[in-house]
């Protein structure tokens, strides 16, 4: 089955700096890669996703890149703000099954 | 109009008890899941149902028994609760295969076993 590795486990940045979180996956059949943000005491919520037919996707301050050959994908947050502080999860799944596997999460802290 | 709703939100119970968590989705999705999130925040899939049929059953103790009376509901029953069962349990749902499997989570059920 799919195995998703996520780094770093914790990340602290100064407000206004960029943050990058990286994930690797093992199953070459995986073709859908969402990112979730989980604030303290809340549910994980989708913030951006990418499918395997594209290499990059942007939504305002958030971007995700995908390298299918190397089986890794990354989340980039620019101009970070304190409200970006949360736990971020990457995930991977394929159209062939309903099994979405999550990375271990990255706790991002943005210092004012 | 919560899309994925689960009850109860908080549950404190003694070891050895049996408890249930209920989940309902009004998104018209075909697939529902139970995920467990432990104190280290790992999100691990427990079960997945597609149109009331079990399709994923991870290595979960058989004290955990999911039940799906229809495709909008997936309940989780836990027998003989143990201290290690303390966690947040998230119900979730998604469309069928062709829509890319975006998963929508419920608000979570905080289970504490004492």
Task: Describe it.
The complex is a heterodimer of chains A (112) and B (114). Chain A is mainly beta and 112 residues long. Chain A has strands spanning 4-7, 10-14, 19-25, 32-38, 45-51, 56-59, 62-67, 72-77, 86-92, 101-102, 106-111. The model of chain A has no long low-confidence stretch (mean pLDDT 93). Chain B is an all-beta fold. Chain B has strands spanning 4-7, 10-13, 19-25, 31-37, 43-50, 53-57, 64-70, 73-78, 87-94, 104-105, 109-113. In chain B, strands 2, 4, 5, 6, 9, 10 and 11 form a 7-stranded mixed sheet that branches. Chain B is globular and about 40 Å long. The mean pLDDT of chain B is 90.
β-strand amount of chain A: over 45%
Task: Return Rg of chain A in Å.
Answer: 13 Å
Q: SSE string of chain A, helix = H, strand = E?
A: EEEEEEEEEEE
The largest pleated sheet of chain A is described as: 6 strands, mixed
Summarize the structure.
The complex is a heterodimer of chains A (about 110) and B (about 110). Chain A is built from no helices and 11 strands.
What are the defining features of this structure?
heterodimer, A: 112 residues, mainly beta, six-stranded mixed beta sheet, five-stranded antiparallel beta sheet, 54% strand, B: 114 residues, seven-stranded mixed beta sheet, four-stranded antiparallel beta sheet, 11 strands, 55% strand, globular
């Amino acid at each position: 089955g799919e195995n998703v590795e996520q780094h770093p486990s914790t990340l602290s940045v100064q407000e206004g700096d960029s943050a990058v979180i990286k994930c690797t996956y093992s199953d070459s059949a995986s073709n859908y890669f969402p990112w979730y943000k989980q604030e303290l005491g809340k549910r994980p919520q989708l913030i951006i996703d990418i499918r395997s037919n594209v290499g990059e996707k942007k939504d305002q301050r958030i971007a995700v890149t995908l390298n299918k050959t190397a089986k890794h994908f990354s989340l980039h947050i620019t101009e970070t703000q304190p409200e970006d502080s949360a736990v971020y999860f990457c995930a991977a799944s394929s159209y062939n099954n309903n099994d979405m596997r999550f990375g271990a999460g990255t706790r991002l802290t943005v210092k004012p | 109009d919560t899309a994925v709703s689960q009850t109860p939100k908080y549950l404190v119970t003694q070891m050895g008890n049996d408890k249930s968590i209920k989940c309902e989705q009004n998104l018209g999705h075909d697939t529902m899941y139970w995920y467990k999130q432990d104190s280290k925040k790992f999100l691990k899939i427990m079960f997945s149902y597609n149109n009331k049929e079990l399709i994923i059953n991870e290595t979960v103790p058989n004290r955990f028994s999911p039940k799906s009376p229809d495709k909008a509901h997936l309940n989780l029953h836990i027998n003989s609760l143990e201290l290690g069962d303390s966690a947040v349990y998230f119900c979730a749902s998604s469309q069928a295969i062709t829509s890319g499997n975006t998963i929508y989570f419920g608000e979570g059920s905080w289970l504490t076993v004492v």
